[in-house]
Amino acid sequence: ENLDFGSAVETTTVTLTSDEDLGIELANDSAVRGDDIQYTVTGGTDGQEHVVAIESSDFRDGITASEEESVFRNVDDTEEVGFNSSSDVAYAIVEMDGTTAVGGIETQYLDDSSIDVEVYENGIPVENVSSEDSEDDATLDVEEGDVTIDSPESTYIVGEEVDITGSAAGTDNVAVYARDNGDWEVVTENI
């Protein structure tokens, strides 16, 4: 009533969400096998946990039990990763930080095909994801890496100097090796 020393101003930002808004987004829609791909669960409620899963039918043939548990990376907002034999999925449990949760996928253990990454509503245990409908999914196209050497065209002879040319699609580093009596030796790295 007797305030005469200036106006009072307060600003508050409110974000409204519901479980109907829950979604998953991938940083990239495609990857060369071996790339790490970031995903973001969106539209959740702060502190809630959600299961993100990939079915074992999307795994690369012949991976070990330890590799099955490493399909998801334990990074950022990820609380737990592993493989659940009851639901036959690799999974990550992520905790929402605000309205998002960030995690990662290790693509070296995935088949070179279209992979469905699914997110489930809060409260669904990993054991039950095979019998529940996911809230949202995203498709990741995993491709096999390719290295082509154009030159030299055939066998290298000791003492001969050659220029190596070619391309390596989807790779960051290439190393050249030479075999000497069955032993492999690094010629050069990071080219």
- Secondary-structure element sequence? EEEEHEEEEEEEEEE
Write down the overall geometry.
elongated
Strand content: 35-45%
Sheet with most strands: strand arrangement = 2-10-9-4-7-6
Amino- and carboxy-terminal Cα gap: 75 Å
Structural class: mainly beta
Which sheet architecture does the biggest sheet show?
6 strands, mixed
Q: Helical content, roughly?
A: under 10%
> What is the tally of helical segments?
1
| Alpha-carbon Rg, integer | 24 Å
Summarize model confidence as the mean pLDDT: 85
Low-pLDDT runs of 5+ residues are none
Number of DSSP strands? Answer: 14
Architecture overview:
It is a single chain. This protein has one helix spanning 65-68, and strands spanning 23-26, 30-32, 36-42, 49-55, 72-73, 78-84, 89-95, 100-106, 114-119, 136-143, 146-151, 165-169, 176-180, 183-188. With 191 residues, it is mainly β. Strands 2-10-9-4-7-6 form a six-stranded mixed beta sheet, with no helix packed on it. Strands 1-3-8-5 form a four-stranded antiparallel beta sheet, with no helix packed on it. A two-stranded antiparallel ribbon has the order 11-12.
